[in-house]
Amino acid sequence: MTGWGLRLWTVLKKEIRDHARDRRSLALALIYPLLGPLLVAGGLNMAGKTLQTDERNRVVDIPAVGMEYAPKLAMHLEANNIRIVPAPATPEARNTAVRDGHLPVILVVPPSAQGSEAFTLDVIANLGRVENLRATARLTGIITNFNDAIAAARAAEAGLPEDYAVPIKLHKINVARDANIAVFFYNMMPPLVIFMIFLGGVHLAIDTTVGERERGSLEPLLLAPVERWVLLLAKSGAALAFTAVTTLMNLGAFKVFMSLAVAGSDQLTQPPDWSVFATVLAISIPLMVIAVALQMSISVVTRSMKEAQIYLGLLPLVPALPGMVLVFKPILPTDLTVAVPVFGQMLLIGQLVAEQALDPRHLAIATASTLGAAALVFWFAARWFRREKMFVLG
Amino acid sequence: MIEMDGLTKRFDDVHALNGLSLSAPDGQVTGLIGPNGAGKTTAFRIVYGLLAADAGTARVDGVDVAQDRMAAQRQLGVLPDVRGLYPRLTAREHIRYFGQLHGASGAELEADIEDLIARLGMTDFADRRAKGFSRGQELKVALGRALVHRPKNLILDEPTNGLDVMSSRAVRLLIAEMKAQGHCILISSHIMSEVSALCDRLVIAADGRLVAEGTPDELRQAAGTDDLEEVFVRLLGKAGALL
Known about the structure:
A: mainly alpha, 17 helices, 4 strands, B: 2 domains, four-stranded antiparallel beta sheet, globular
């Protein structure tokens, strides 16, 4: 290697060695990327545990009044793991207790139920409270089953077909809901990965540009016979190396932690394969390049490290916000949408995580568009880096 | 040889240089002295390619800095006013980094580094990281960094600024040694005794232009006093630069 290539390598090597000794750079590259995956995997694990619990075996306390008027119903409820507990005595107190969320639901059996099979039950529920939905649904489901059993018995007594009174039976087969919970968590991965891509090289970008100027080490460096663009490219290369390590850690942690989180569940969808993560890494390369180019241009334009930290702290939010919107409202990739720099990669990563096939044409458009934008941003940064005001202190 | 010819430089409304010319020949120590704001640092920065002059030329060994900055920088070793070290690199790594930036490598570079470490008295801290270095230690690293590519021309901006007696003395001995080897040395300093002892020729500047030049004896004669500090004050007073 000779000429500018050698000078580039010299500066790149120095910056990597220098920042490999820096705790802040190392924390950003090695520790921060674990936090998002831990959070997502924690949520996934909790969702898995909730689904894994068999609700039918769990004893639920249901406050009730007048159960003594319907002993058969009481027995049926008990047989289905409902434990009857006392409820407030007056109707007002009952309504208030449920409205305020002190009690999940109250069953009221009227005195007219005594000795009769046909009567009206009051179920005082507050469906405005999500946590009460499950208790209410459980109670009404058991009562409906009891009702169906009575109807079948009465039909049999009358010599009618068993399903005479209940012609249509509902049979719920829950396949989608549990799987979707895991997929929802997997969809949170792309914006978090992109957030880390825009964060990984931040400290290095600041420290090697505006940081050098503040420390006074930029002036001696510029006295060496090195092209200015080579200096900036080498520093960008070092920031890119740290960003790549951060992204690798981040994606690896997502795969490992999410696999562990669903390991105990037979209901949750497994996270995507390693091959999908490898493809996400490959698609992320143009993202890393533009992230570093943006970090470098903001760092060279700002006048102090503090100012750079403020702007660069906000930078990861810019691509991550549309990413969060995509979690809830996915947009289909088209030639036009993938041509938007950064957004194109977000769409493609979203497709990969959803285990959809990628269109190579989309991949080519997104890569060219983001790399082209990165080159423009870098060109701007390199031009700015040549300005006298960039490096002269005071 | 370092030459400045009619250097002019403006920063917005401030005229930092107004046609400053000087010539620093090989084998001599030339001192550029002047009050704060005289344009010394700006002139140096134009010579070592950090700033572009609005008018005039700066040449190092005949190479026009504006035409070929990198060729001029290869002939130049600079100790800038701001030492600026990397806190996480050792003294040796600093010198090696700058040697490599100048294209040196391998056993020859390592031998040069070892030689500089010995000459500058850096053996004790050569492999310590720069964080926490004293000003003397910082200066030695900065000098090592400036000399590693064996430049023929040296610019030393305030070389003994903030140093203790022993470190100042070491720097003065080094300058004398380099001069004896035929290097061109251009220094700026506020310390008149140092200027008097070291410099073969003095250039006094004020408001970005030349006020007087000559050997210390010639300047003493022109000002009619033996005290160099008094020479400085009188010549600047004549030029109206003290007002």
